[in-house]
Amino acid sequence: MCLAIPMRIETINGQEAQVEVGGAHGVRTVSLALTPEARPGDYVVVHAGYAISVIDEAEAQETLRLLAELETFYTDEMIARELRG
Prior knowledge:
Distance between the termini: 10 Å
Oligomer: single chain
Structural class: alpha+beta
Strand order of the largest sheet: 3-2-1-4-5
């Protein structure tokens, strides 16, 4: 199962960006090689260390809300079972 997460770009240095997802998760470095149009303040969908698309803030917030809702539903045991197939 693959999951891509919306993150907000804080800063850009060349083809790398510092991104944040909901303050509690901290800042990460991702590649902008696939989204050279991205700018600080933009939301990008991140998968495997790459920003794969730029999305608007409303879509990012709705996706984050849905992920938080799923987190309250699924237990760690349920997730592990799904990953094992």
